[in-house]
Amino acid sequence: MAQRKTGIALVALAAALWGTDALFRRGLALELPAATVVFFEHLVLVVVTAPWLIRSYQKVLRLGVGDWVALVLIGAGASATATILFTAAFSYGDPNTPLLLQKLQPLVAVLGARLLLGEALLPRFWLFLATGLGGAYLIAFPDPLQVSVSQLAPALLAVGAAALWGMGTVLGRRMSGSLEFRELTAWRFAIGMPVAGLIWLLQPGAPVGVTGGQDVLAIVVLALVPGLGAMLLYYRGLSRTPASAATVAELAFPLSAAMVNYLAFGAVLTFSQWVGVLVLAGAITWMSLLGARDPEEIGVVAQTSLATGS
Fold this sequence. Notes:
mainly alpha; two-stranded antiparallel ribbon; 2 strands
């Protein structure tokens, strides 16, 4: 019981640290191209995780083609491209929408995992998905009846990032039998760094580097605190915590993000956005609680069950 309580506390702490992301990323996104920020963020992470890269080098060389494809997609898609999309969303000035729309990620991960594992989705699953998307829509637009292009752009960027991160989770599960988590994290950053660098170099007029002392400090803190530090805390806590309890603890993320944005940037949520937060968080929590007992309760049926008629 003590370990479970500690695990829940670690997951909640990690989620709260994720909520501080806008403190560093928003200012950088307003001053620098998204790919520039993400490249140097990955550079810091590669330097820090280099021991795990070296330790697992021989293991990675022995991976099969399928694992290599998954690893490249994790690094290029979930790490580099998704983070560039997420950072670009902040350049529109709204610190709340990109962060809160990341609550879509578990829904994307569940959908992707079921499709890739060949499991059938019953009608009730689509009810969960529709509820989650409805909550995300309310979060994205302060006035859900008045949607402008300027509001749509950051929302689409954030949803694209959530989708790539969700699929990265699915592929990461596939890789869990080949690489332990710290090794997978290190290779994710190592593969993502040159991809982010290529995107950065291809951008016309992109700055040669980051010269301002404040920007350098912000990138380092961004990489180490809401990045690597929070991720390691999260997986440490998750190893001691049932998935249903972890999902509830993760609700510290939108609450922390909303509080940080209110105190640091004066950003407030409208009534309909708070409704969206509650709807989306409620859908994911309900889904996790039911799914922990029996996947069929959330509309997921394994292929083996269909084949045997059970």
